[in-house]
Amino acid sequence: MAVSELIQDTDDTPAHLEVTVMTEDPTSPPPPPTSHPVANGNLSSSLLSPLATRGDSSARHHGDRKSASLEDKQSRLIGCLHSGLKRHRDYVKIAVPRQRADRLPREWWKTGVAFLYATFNLLFTTVIITFVHERVPDKSVSPPLPDKFFDYMERVPWAFTVTEVNGLLLVALWFIQWLFLKHKSIVGRRCFFLIGTLYMYRCVTMYITTLPVPGKHMVCAPKLYNDSTGKIWRVLRLISGGGLSLTGSHLMCGDFLYSGHTVMLTLAYLFIAEYSPRRLWWYRWLCWLLSATGVVFILVGHEHYSVDVVVGYFVTTRVFWCYHTMANTHALRQAPNNLLSRTWWNPVFNFLERNVQEPVPVVFCWPIALPSSCTQRYRSVDNAAASRDE
After folding, report:
1. Biased composition, Basic and acidic residues: where in the chain (predicted)?
2. Model confidence over 195-215: pLDDT tens digits?
3. Is 102 a catalytic residue?
4. How confident is the model over 100-151, as pLDDT tens digits?
5. At what angle do helices 306-328 and 346-353 cross, to 10 degrees?
């Protein structure tokens, strides 16, 4: 009968030894001389001892060899990583997040271009007013058009003075607020572009449709007809007085559709509300009150038709909201289904806003300390990043 036993070492790698022991059988031939007797079915100590000794020695030798092989592989792997990092150390850089200053570049030269655009359209408006004035029909021939607001509201002589005073206050407040804005270059070119665009629209509407004066009280300067020199002097006088009745520079008629005073009152309030802190709700309400009062008093003074004021309000608010919707929503700029990109001024918008990657935050700083204090933190971060890259 054959008996098999497995002798297993306690090491991780087992050593197997199979021993076959034959018992004496009368009918079987005598065992070979090399066989060893077995008592009670167990291996004899004389046979087990040398075999176990050889198994333990082989297992320990195999374990030591495996450990040495593992240590050798680990050392080779560490060496490869070390040499690889050493060889490519110039390409290992720490990713530093882009600073807000990079996402909101100043680009004052673009602000200068927008300023020239606004200045040109304002000057062009005075020229158009001079030409339109020559086409205004006489009050005796063409009386004022019927207006529903004038039917219910009698004219108040001093009302238009309130309008111009409110407009000057709003413009002054916005100018001071703009000076203290940190990102005044971006906001400034937006303001200049919208002013230029709205007054260009006004030139078109004034020129294609000339309305009669809205009231008998209006005094218009005499027509010059072919006197080119006199027209140039009127243009210069209108520019010097800012086109205001307070300064006595606006004595020409015909610039009715649409109202330029409505444009300035509405646009100044929109910029003040857009770029002022939300906690200053009382400041925004005060500016809204000045704007609304000034617009209403245009009609109370019978200086414009109601349609002039309504069209001026709608054109100003819609152009402002469309521009700032595209400016504050970066995903809209390249979206294929963005219908706002079909406006004629979309290429100009892309030129002005190409590098502005996020909405402009409402942050204030001292205008005099702008070159040193407001940019010191960003310059230090950039210098530190540059030194780490080197």
Report:
1. 57-71
2. 999 999 999 999 998 899 998
3. no
4. 446 888 899 999 999 999 999 999 999 999 999 989 988 888 888 999 999 9
5. 50
Q: What is the dihedral of CA 121, 321, 284, 274, to 10 degrees?
A: -90
- Catalytic site residue 88? no
CA-to-CA separations, 189 to 8, 107, 185, 362, in angstroms, rounded: 86, 10, 6, 16
The residues pairing with 364 across neighbouring beta strands, listed in sequence order, are 181
Q: 133, 250, 261, 302: which one is catalytic?
A: 261
Question: Which tokens go with 246?
Answer: 């307070």
279 CB-contact burial (10 Å; exposed 0-12 / middle 13-18 / buried 19+): exposed
**Residue 18: beta bridge partners?**
6
CB 280 within 8 A of CB 330: no
Per residue in 309-355, pLDDT tens? 999 999 999 999 999 999 998 888 878 888 888 899 999 999 999 98
Instruction: Give me the helix-helix angle, 184-208 and 346-353, nearest 10°.
Output: 160
What tens digit of pLDDT does each residue of 83-98 get?
766 665 554 455 555 5
Q: Annotated catalytic residue: which of 72, 304, 324, 330?
A: 304
